[in-house]
Amino acid sequence: MLTSQRKQLILEALKRDGQVIAKTLSTEFDVSEDTVRRDLRELAAEGQLQRVHGGALPASPAAVDFAGRERIESASKAAIGRAAAGMIAHGQIAFIDGGTTAVQLARHLPRDLRATIVTHSPSIAVELAEHTELEIIMIGGRLFRHSMVNVGAAAIEALSHIRADFYFMGVTGVHPQAGLSTGDMEEAYVKRALAEHAAETVVLASAEKLNAASAYKIADVSAASTIVVERTTPEALTVPFEALGITILRA
Known about the structure:
Blueprint: H1 3-17, E1 20-21, H2 22-29, H3 33-45, E2 49-52, E3 55-58, H4 66-70, H5 75-85, E4 93-96, H6 100-107, E5 116-119, H7 122-127, E6 135-138, E7 142-144, E8 149-151, H8 153-159, E9 164-170, E10 173-175, E11 179-182, H9 185-196, E12 198-204, E13 216-219, E14 226-229, H10 235-242, E15 247-250
Parallel strand pairs: 4-5, 4-9, 5-6, 9-12, 12-14, 14-15
Antiparallel strand pairs: 1-3, 2-3, 7-8, 10-11, 11-13
């Protein structure tokens, strides 16, 4: 069997089963595990999958930069943002993450909402500048341009003094076993700290992020109390999370 044929079969198995095991593939293809691991390394380098111990998971496609993601059709993101915005009540404190779906959340907050929004995203702060009833707290740090958020020790130190009712988290991967993940290590640290200082973490996840993984783990999926998804998301993608006791909110 040619290398290209093996790689295509690996990708088909990932799409069908949601994961592949190197040992199983070596038996199926009648090649060594070293050969399979080389195939997986090359596919990972192409962004086709995410390697994990013993095999691989689907790679998150959410890897384009912030400006690129803003140009992507946003009807589903707007619906997710609208549903998440409705969760914030008067008098509450909410952390809002960066990202284009989080921007949609900010756009759907009622103008008369009296609450405190804490964010490390300049985009979110600017979006809410004219919401005069909101108290806006900006968390500083080094600007990570890919996601337009502030990261680093300064950001973690600043948010450590705040306790929020909600944290609305953006991710690039949500997987029952691999957990919540993103593509940058420093961003993962900040997201983890935000989750630890919120009573509830709500994950904003379009369908392509479900059952996918990125390189840097934020937390186990159980850190999320709710996952907000598109209304049309197949039940097969959400059932594993519901089985773990996580609420699925369809937008």
